[in-house]
Amino acid sequence: MKGVANVQEIKREDLQRLLERARPALNEAEYEQLKAALDTLVYLTQLLGKKSTTIQRLRQILFGASSEKTAEVLKAMVKGVGREGSSLDPGGEETAAASAVGEPVAGDAHGKAKGHGRNGAQHYPGANTVCVAHPEFKAGERCPQCRRGKLYPFAPGVLVRVVGQAPLTATVYEIEKLRCNLCLEVFSAPTPAGVGAHKYDAGAASMIALLKYGSGVPFYRLQGLQESLGVPLPAATQWEIAKNTAALIKPAFDELIRQGAQGEVLHNDDTTMKILGRVSEGLPEAPQRTGVFTSGIVCRCQQHTIALFFTGARHAGENLARVLAHRAQGLAAPIQMCDALSRNVPAAFETIVANCLAHARRKYVEVVPQFPEACRFVLENLAEVYRHDAHCRQQHLKPGERLLYHQQHSGAPMERIECWMAQQLDEHRVEPNGALGEAMRYMRKHWKELTLFLRTAGAPLDNNITEQCLNRAILHRKNALFYKSDQGAQVGDTFMSLIHTCALAQVNPFDYLTALQANAAALSENPGQWLPWNYRGAGLSP
Which domain covers residue 26, as residue numbers? Predict the structure, then answer.
């Protein structure tokens, strides 16, 4: 038929054979470019074959997701249609378009003075502070201007000076040697304290780990940077240092697992990962499973929040079961926040399951262009719920107080959404199998789990904290592409767990990792005293 493309089924095996036939005529760079293009073609073909793939979703995959803030999602509608169709109170025009995740409304600007930089001196806790004394005058002396008053200390002026240097620097020590011209005895100068035992100190290992597993800088890229700066650091050497250091500080990782298992609220999710030389192709209970995942588990305890990473063939629910195996007997079942995938729920342990409201909201965000008014109704009501939750955080309400506040203020907008969905589907005002109908059916199916925050104290609204946690693993995947072995994945899990837990506790991860190495014996004996929030109190940190 004229005008219809000749669509053929594309098989990866056929494309691979064609690629290998063309390889002799291509150089290495051209071959990699062509291979990447064909892999992309196969991936897009598979996506288009799925019923659930929409044009909006395809755009997000190809070009990245734009902001999901309510104000941004509804911006075009607000400009073109106005606010007449709003389902909320007419007096709430400013707040109705605020973010569903606590976006500040107009007028909340901090009013910072301009011309003083993005960060003031108080934002540099890791900087060295140098006190510069006045070269002529001292406190208590006569004023040189009026000759009557006395000088007293005043608020000092502050200047911030940022200098550049290589991520890892080196010092070459030339030890002087003297030899007798008669007896030929050689006399050497003493080696400086702390120099000579190891070529790479604990700080070097901490920096390598932070760059690799905290900032996603691959070993080979750091190798090139260091070489260009005159301080060579081979990738193989970096790996050896990271591997040995991970083994040294592993007791801290094990203690995080033990303490995280006692948490009241556990968040979990996973993302895909690749291990090139996997030792095992699957778990004993699932020998056909060949996929590899990195699971992120965030444990909210009474006073601290712990992040854990696990990479391998296990899904998020199976890794959560490994953590819960360390839970003390007699504790009540924890609240578990995850999306609605069944693989996220541990089979052998009881949890109170809550589902992510942001996942349900995202399904409406994706179909805003096709169903603007319907999506506006849902998004604005959810924005109201999130504003109430932001108020609870700002007021530091206890779990019971937060539950009561949500029941009093968030119950109404959630009830409006529930009644509206029932009316739309029961009266056949929307196609049940369409994109909007699918969003409604998903929300109704998991309504009990999505509204747990209205019935159980401490239940969160969404799983955003775990998605933020997994961004660290995704950054590593985007830059380094894969782990080479299972051992490499375990090293990455150890460092990522410690680094991200430091970030949640607002602790300097470089200082923490360095302290663990310097006090490895004490860490092994009592790991509970060497966690990010209490290691300085151990009295042995450098």
Answer: 12-45
